[in-house]
Design a protein that fits this description.
Blueprint: H1 11-28, H2 36-58, H3 62-88, H4 94-120, H5 129-132
Helix pairs in contact: 1-2, 1-4, 2-3, 3-4
Amino acid sequence: MATIKKFEDIVSWQKAREMNKIVGKMIDSGKFGKSYKLIDQIESSAGSIMDNIAEGFERGGNREFLQFLYISKGSCGEFRSQLYRAMDRGYLIQTEFDMLYKLALDIIVLLQKLIDYLDKSEMKGPKYKSRQDK
């Protein structure tokens, strides 16, 4: 795996950003009506996916990064659950649900691959670099 220099290079973060754009456009178009609580929850969980990837990466240690990747994965599960609520209330049609659900699953697969890689890695992260070089 190539060394990632910034969180924006992480494919799961890029996909989560793409998903946020799609959900944001749906919300802005009025697709969710006045269901403000669901809007807040679905927007928060979608945002949490990409935000936790970014925050974990910026902490500079692989163990902390792993913890935040797991949180991000959990937020992805929460997002998928909220998709069901949105579809059940008629805010999403089946094709919209399927597209967002698939995107969320793709993100989970990418997150798990990164988790597996980091879990096996001997590197501890940039904040430990000076200790690793000794």
